[in-house]
Give the backbone structure.
Amino acid sequence: MAAKTQTDPWHYARPELAQKYLKAFDLGLTSAKGLFAKRRMGKSEFLEKDLIPAAQNAGYLTTYLNLWDARTQPTGALVAALQRTLELKGFAKVAQRLNTPLRKVKAGAKVPGLGEGSVEAELADAPSAGGPALGEWLRTFDKRGKRMLLVLDEAQVLADAAHSELAHSLRAGLDSRKQNIKVVFAGSSEPTLRRMFGRSTEPFYNWAPLEPFELLGADFVKALVAKVNKLSRFSLKQAEALEAFHVLKDTPEFFRRYLECFMTNADLGGAVALEHTLEHVFNDREFAQIWARLLPADQEVLKALANDVTDLHSARTLLRIGMALGLERAVSKNAPAQALKRLQDQELITRLEVGEYRFQDDAFAEWVKNRGLDG
């Protein structure tokens, strides 16, 4: 069962969307769904605060796991999540049969991917035990005669070659339980998810239809502005807030920061709040750290993309990369091609079609753009 969270007064509830997904499962035409959206677009909040509570009210047992938080030990985190959901008391006995070591976790400790919560034990690193452990928990669920909704956030982690055994084991365990276990695979990397479900060599090939997550828009903005105007004696106009939302790349997380700035200094007005928000969201320390880890060629390609340079193999771009590498001459066309591959592997950019790429994170794109082509 998902951990209970305190009510968020600023959460924009989407019960209709939650019911839409659950009804698709109830019809029996599909047992899994894949959803993708860029980071900071409200996907995880919807899954935890709308979809899971709706599923619980419909009688589902629910398991939520953010695989990005558990990407170094996803098998242990998934087994611990299932164990907590099923409230099993025989965890130690099962582990003994599997000859799997346990690492005891203190009550209230933070388990990767689960957040704060009391957990009896977490599977220690033992890749060879991943399949048997998962199978054991799923077979235990079979005896309960109930339905489960398994929500795997940032599911693209399963496409990592290092987690291939886990992916194969999970696929095998779920294949025979489609009637009782429904799965939502959500992620922020569209190309990785498309490869995960669309390539015949992948464990989850053709296992779930993939679709874009329905993004928040004007209704979300209007609802939050109404709350602001109930709390503040300084009114915020809806038109001004909608414009701020668009300037902030229609990103719910950034819009909340904008509202926080406005509420803190409402007498200064929305324009000042927007300026302050822009200064912070597009100058995050995280971006500087990412930038510092990149190769010079990768940095030059990102600067070109951020400044709408469409021909990455032009003489000017090839010369700029060569200068960045200290060669005093242009590089071959293979250099930007290799840089694009590395940037896709790091999930910093997405390939839309041949020769067309975009940033995964609009905020990072803006940050890079502000550096300038010569920055």
User: Anything to note?
Assistant: Confidence is low (pLDDT under 50) at residues 1-5, 88-129. The chain is about 50% helix and 10% strand.
